[in-house]
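Supplementary Note 3. Input sequence used for the single-chain structure prediction.
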Amino acid sequence: MTDPDLPDAGDTADKDAAYVQRMQRRKAIQDERIAATVTDRGLVIVNTGAGKGKTTAALGMVLRSLGHGHRVAIVQFIKGAWEPAEKQAFAHWGEQLEFHATGGGFTWETQDKERDKAMAQAGWDVARKYLADANYKLVMLDEINIALHKGYVSMEQVLAGIELRPPLTHVVLTGRNAPDELIERADLVTEMRLIKHPFKLQRIRAQAGIEF
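The predicted structure, written as discrete structure tokens, is reproduced below.
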């Protein structure tokens, strides 16, 4: 006698066969989509929003590119008053990675707008060199969206610099308040949304390994 609480073998076989058919149809659709796509092309990637993780996500791309043997350049804007821990972590990659922290620190700490602007412009000169260099597969412009928002570098400068890239060079731009013009130009945009933050809720300060 068949146990009514156990699945019927025939039903199970039908479900398995239906599942295989669905997956075959899905694979055919995916294969068709991939066949219609463009091959390698350098992307403009923007990480923005009020939430944490913009720089961290970009550094993940850096690590991935290094793992593939590509050369990478990182130019940090705003940051620079301290020695970034990520610079030390990437030090063993040698000439495969170029790392420049060109800022003077948080603007409420520097309290010198003209100096901050001059440092951002100097950082942009460095970034522009890497953007135009075909030897670099990925250029990360960390916190440049803040420099744009504050007017330390112009939208015209950044858009022109992006166009200097060789066909296979990617650029990732991080920082909150990414301008609409940059978002329009980008190929990939991710917005980090803030839900909770330990400083605001519990007055827990930035900690090594988490914030810096």
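The chain has a mean pLDDT of 87. The chain has two domains: 8-37, 44-202.
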